[in-house]
Amino acid sequence: MSFKTTGKVLQVLPEIKGTSARGEWKKQDFVIETAEEQYPKKICFTLFNDKNGTFDKIKPNMEVEVSFSIESREYNEKWFSNINAFRVDLVQPNNNGAAGNNPPPYSPSDIPPTGDSDDKDDLPF
Questions:
Q1: pLDDT at position 124 over 70
Q2: Residue 64 · residue 9 · CB < 8 Å
Q3: Rounded CA gap, 17 and 30, in Å?
Q4: Could you give the CA distance from residue 84 to residue 48 in angstroms, rounded to a whole number?
Q5: Partners of 28 in the beta sheet?
Q6: Residues 6 or more apart from 11 whose CB is under 8 A from it?
Q7: 110-113 — which CB contacts under 8 Å span 24+ positions?
Q8: Dihedral Cα 40, 42, 46, 50, nearest 10 deg
Q9: Which residue, among 57, 61, 59, 85, has the nearest Cα to 71 in the 3D structure?
Q10: Which residues contact 44 (CB under 8 A, 6 or more apart)?
Q11: What predicted TM-score, i.e. pTM, was given to this entire model?
Q12: CATH homologous superfamily for the domain 3-92
């Protein structure tokens, strides 16, 4: 099962490297604050063995869309959950937002000229 959320990167934690029986590994955690809800949430994601160079792309204050999965495991009769990011995309600023709904600026030259005061309306009523 996978999920997506969008938010602003608050913090990028240092990269951690290690070696296991399967070989070398690396991971990096980063925290975003969501903006999709009435009450924004802070979520810490983990990128593990990044193959796309995402570690280098994530910077604080960036708007990102994160695709992630949630996984839980038991250890010593306690449960631990991980939020694993598998894709992080930069959100491009949208120029069609609230500012795009406003009318164009007004200038005095936009007013059509009025007729002479001697002109009579030729309306039938």
A1: no
A2: yes
A3: 15
A4: 7
A5: 47
A6: 30, 31, 60
A7: none
A8: 50
A9: 85
A10: 29, 30, 31, 83
A11: 0.68
A12: Nucleic acid-binding proteins (2.40.50.140)
Please say whether the beta carbons of 55 and 47 come within 8 A. yes
On the question of pLDDT at 96 being above 70, the answer is no
Q: Please give the structure tokens belonging to residue 74.
A: 């038991």
Is residue 16 within 8 A of residue 27, CB to CB? The reply is yes
pLDDT per residue over 24-67, tens digit each?
A: 999 999 999 997 778 899 999 999 887 667 878 889 999 999 99
Burial of 58 (0-12, 13-18, 19+ CB in 10 A): buried
Kindly indicate the confidence band of residue 9, based on its pLDDT and cuts at 50, 70 and 90.
very high
